[in-house]
C-alpha cells in the first residue's frame, strides 16, 4: 500500500470519510507528522481553501504513545533500604554502629559483642549444657578419679589420616597395608619407595602426607620435652618379636586398613561392533599414627598383667605354727 499511495494521503482520506483506517505499524512506533516553520502541517493550497469554504473538520491529533523508561543496571532503586538515602520503605533499617575511625576487622576480639560471637561458636547451647552435666555426673560417680581411657587420651597423641580414592582394587592394596602396619613411619616410607607394586607410589605419597599432618597438627615426632636422650628400651610384642626403641616420641603406623570406594565406568570395544561395560574399582587407605611411648605403655601393661597371673598360680608354704581344731566336727 505504501508503494502505491503515500501514507499522508491515506491518513487524510481516512479523516475525511470518518473511517479509522491507518496503516499497520509496530507497537512502539507512532505516526510521524512533519510541520513547517509556521507550525502548520504541510498541506496543499487547494486543500486549505476547500476546508475554509466548506468548513472542513479538523483532522485528528496524533498522540504519541509514551515509551518505557530507560532501565538502569548495576544500581539500587530509590526505595531500596540499602541505598545511600535509605529509601522510603517503612520498618527498621540496618544501622552500623559508629566505632570511630577503626573498622570492624581492626576491633580486638575482647571488645566485640559476645552474644553474636557465642551464636557462631556455640550454635546449640542446650546440647553444650547437656554434655557438661554428663561430664560432671561421670566425675562424681568415679569419685573424682580420671578413667584410664581419658588419661590415655590426654597423655598420648595419635593422628588418623584417610587418603583419596586410588585407582586400584582391595585385593592389590590390602597386602601393602599389611606390610606397613606396625612399622616405623620412616621404615614404611622406605619400604614403599623400593616396592615394585604399582600402587606403592600412591601409598608412599599418602604416608608422607600423614607424617606431615601428624607433625604439624598433633606435634608428634618432635622429640622429648626435656631434650635429654632417653635410654634405649627393648619391648616385646604380642607375637614375641623384640623391638628396640631409641626415641619414645618417634612415629609408627599403629593401624592400616583399606576402604572400598565407588566403581567407575569404562567401555571395552570388542569385535563385530560390540561394547563391553567396564567397572574399574577405587580403593582408599587409612592409617593411624602413634608415638613409641604408646608401645612402651602397652608392653608394661602386658608385663604387669602376666606377673599378677603368675603370682595367683604360685604355691606358698603354710606358716609354721600349731594346728588347732583337728577334729572334723565342731565341738559344741
Brief rundown of the structure:
The protein is of the alpha+beta class and 332 residues long. Helix content is 34%, strand content 12%.
Account of the protein in words:
It is built from 9 helices and 7 strands; from the N terminus they run H-H-H-H-H-E-H-H-H-E-E-E-E-E-E-H. It has helices at residues 7-16, 45-54, 114-121, 125-141, 148-155, 170-180, 185-193, 200-217, 292-312, and strands spanning 158-162, 233-236, 242-245, 251-260, 266-269, 275-278, 283-291. Helix 7 packs antiparallel against helix 8 (200-217). The longest helix has 21 residues, at 292-312. The protein starts with 6 loop residues before the first helix and ends in a 20-residue tail after the last helix. Mean pLDDT is 79; it is low at 19-31 and 34-39.
Q: What structural class do helix, strand and pairing data support?
A: alpha+beta
Oligomer: single chain
What is the tally of beta strands? 7
C-alpha-based Rg, rounded: 47 Å
Main β-sheet, spatial strand arrangement: 1-7-4
Proportion of beta-strand residues: 5-15%
Helix/strand order, N-terminal first:
HHHHHEHHHEEEEEEH
Mean pLDDT: 79
Q: Counting H and I runs of at least 4 residues, what is the number of helices?
A: 9
Distance between the termini: 147 Å
Helix share of residues? 25-40%
Question: Major β-sheet, in short?
Answer: 3 strands, antiparallel
Shape: elongated
Low-confidence stretches: 19-31, 34-39
Topology (SSEs and partners):
Elements: H1 7-16, H2 45-54, H3 114-121, H4 125-141, H5 148-155, E1 158-162, H6 170-180, H7 185-193, H8 200-217, E2 233-236, E3 242-245, E4 251-260, E5 266-269, E6 275-278, E7 283-291, H9 292-312
Antiparallel strand pairs: 1-7, 2-3, 4-7, 5-6
Helix pairs in contact: 7-8
Amino acid at each position: 500500500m505504501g508503494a502505491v499511495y503515500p501514507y499522508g494521503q491515506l491518513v487524510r482520506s481516512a479523516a475525511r470519510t470518518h473511517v479509522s483506517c491507518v496503516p499497520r505499524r509496530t507497537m512502539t512506533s507512532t505516526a510521524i507528522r512533519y510541520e513547517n516553520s509556521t507550525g502548520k502541517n504541510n498541506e496543499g493550497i487547494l486543500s486549505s481553501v476547500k476546508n475554509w469554504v466548506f468548513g472542513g473538520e479538523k483532522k485528528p491529533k496524533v498522540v504519541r504513545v509514551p515509551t518505557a523508561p530507560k532501565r538502569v543496571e548495576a544500581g539500587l532503586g530509590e526505595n531500596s533500604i540499602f541505598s545511600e538515602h535509605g529509601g522510603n520503605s517503612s520498618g527498621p533499617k540496618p544501622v552500623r554502629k559508629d566505632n570511630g575511625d577503626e573498622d570492624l576487622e581492626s576491633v580486638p576480639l575482647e571488645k566485640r559483642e559476645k552474644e553474636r560471637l557465642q551464636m557462631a561458636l556455640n550454635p546449640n547451647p542446650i546440647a553444650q549444657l547437656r554434655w557438661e552435666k554428663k561430664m560432671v555426673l561421670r566425675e562424681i560417680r568415679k569419685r573424682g578419679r580420671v578413667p584410664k581411657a581419658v588419661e590415655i587420651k590426654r597423655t598420648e597423641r595419635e593422628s588418623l589420616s584417610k587418603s583419596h580414592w586410588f585407582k586400584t582394587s582391595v585385593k592389590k592394596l590390602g597386602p601393602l597395608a599389611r606390610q606397613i602396619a606396625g612399622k616405623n613411619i620412616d621404615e614404611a616410607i622406605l619400604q614403599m619407595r623400593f616396592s615394585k607394586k604399582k600402587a606403592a607410589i600412591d601409598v608412599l605419597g599418602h604416608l608422607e602426607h600423614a607424617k606431615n599432618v601428624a607433625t604439624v597438627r598433633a606435634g608428634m615426632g618432635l622429640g622429648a620435652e626435656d631434650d635429654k636422650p632417653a635410654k634405649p628400651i627393648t619391648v616385646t610384642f604380642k607375637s614375641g618379636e623384640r623391638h628396640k626403641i631409641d626415641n619414645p616420641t618417634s612415629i609408627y603406623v599403629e593401624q592400616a586398613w583399606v576402604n572400598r570406594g565407588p566403581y567407575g565406568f569404562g567401555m571395552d570395544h570388542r569385535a563385530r561392533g560390540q561394547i563391553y561395560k567396564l567397572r574399574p574399582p577405587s580403593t582408599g587407605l587409612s592409617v593411624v599414627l602413634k608415638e613409641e611411648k604408646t608401645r612402651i605403655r602397652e608392653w608394661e601393661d602386658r608385663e604387669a598383667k602376666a606377673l599378677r597371673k603368675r603370682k595367683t598360680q604360685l604355691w606358698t608354704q603354710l606358716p609354721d605354727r600349731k594346728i588347732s581344731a583337728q577334729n572334723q566336727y565342731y565341738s559344741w
